[in-house]
Design brief:
With 305 residues, this protein is an alpha/beta fold. It contains 8 helices and 15 strands.
């Protein structure tokens, strides 16, 4: 059996594909889908392009860590183009938002909310099985274990409350609430722990902050591969966390344009000072690869053009 993790260069955003090949049988799992507007140059690879180029016939599990547009934009473009066996997510929009005619891309937050509403609506119309994750959830796919690590329930309830209070008729007067929702999306994102051959292998961290890990201390153990939290945000890593995880590879999903001032230079400096891990970027100045591919059978890393 072979298991590879592909980190797609979608510009600023995250899209990760895990393919498990077992003889003539295979599975494809997707964690987030990047931004639909990510194709600004030939170095980048959208989720739609990846599926087409690799002749993917179906997605067995689609996981949405949170609904910022740089994580879900490319998912909307995929719906209806190939079968999706199951979609896992943990935030449902209130009925009054789902029933609104929201289609506002004037700000990143409103664009995220609009895309998410359209995504959920289209997935429901297509009959894609959708599972709302309320607590930590683990499933196995061809012997590979995937654990969805959930955020603090108090923060998650706060996010749901803020969404409930959002007045769709007066969005222009609710910038403070929208900004609060924007921040809470990162604080309440999902993380994904991948176990292989009974051991922790890779940790996909999405945009979570440092306090996210408190309930999971001592449980995750060491991982060979760490996806940098929040696109290489130095405030989302600590010496304690790095020592606990002891990664050998750190992948930063971001562009080379400094979007939102990420990744921060001090992030890589911190990793190099406090660990032996190598740091790889989905996009960096003068890089030519479109995909970072890691075969977790032998931990070979390839940069795919």
């Amino acid at each position: 059996m072979k298991c590879v993790i592909d980190f797609l260069n979608v510009g600023f955003g995250e899209a990760t594909v895990i393919r498990i090949i077992d003889g003539e049988q295979s599975s494809c799992l997707v964690v987030d889908g990047g931004d639909v507007d990510s194709l600004k140059n030939s170095r980048r690879c959208s989720l739609e392009q990846y599926v087409r180029e690799h002749a993917i016939e179906k997605i067995d599990v689609l996981i949405l860590t949170h609904f910022h547009k740089d994580h879900i934009g490319g998912v909307l473009a995929m719906l209806g183009k190939l079968p999706i066996e199951q979609m896992l997510f943990h935030v449902m929009l209130p009925i009054h938002i789902m029933q609104s005619d929201l289609d506002d891309h004037s700000t990143p937050m409103l664009a995220s909310l609009s895309l998410y509403k359209m995504l959920l609506t289209k997935a429901n119309r297509l009959g894609i099985p959708m599972r709302l994750i309320k607590e930590r959830h683990t499933f196995n796919e061809r012997g590979v274990s995937f654990s969805l690590l959930t955020p603090d329930q108090g923060k998650l309830q706060l996010l749901c409350d803020e969404l409930d209070k959002l007045d769709m008729a007066q969005l222009d007067q609710q910038q403070q609430r929208l900004s609060h929702i924007d921040r809470l999306l990162n604080e309440t994102a999902l993380a994904v722990l991948i176990r292989y051959n009974g051991e922790s292998a890779a940790l996909l961290t999405s945009d979570v902050g440092l306090d996210f890990w408190e309930p999971y201390e001592g449980e995750i153990g060491r991982v060979r591969l760490l996806q940098a939290p929040h696109h290489g945000d130095a405030g989302c890593i600590s010496q304690r966390l790095l020592k606990s995880l002891s990664p050998q590879m750190v992948v930063v999903s971001a562009d080379d344009e400094g979007t939102y001032q990420l990744p921060q230079p001090e992030f890589e400096a911190f990793i190099r000072e406090h660990s032996q891990a190598e740091v790889y970027y989905t996009e960096a100045e003068a890089s030519t690869h479109r995909i970072i591919r890691i075969d977790i059978n032998d931990w070979r890393l390839d940069l795919i053009r």
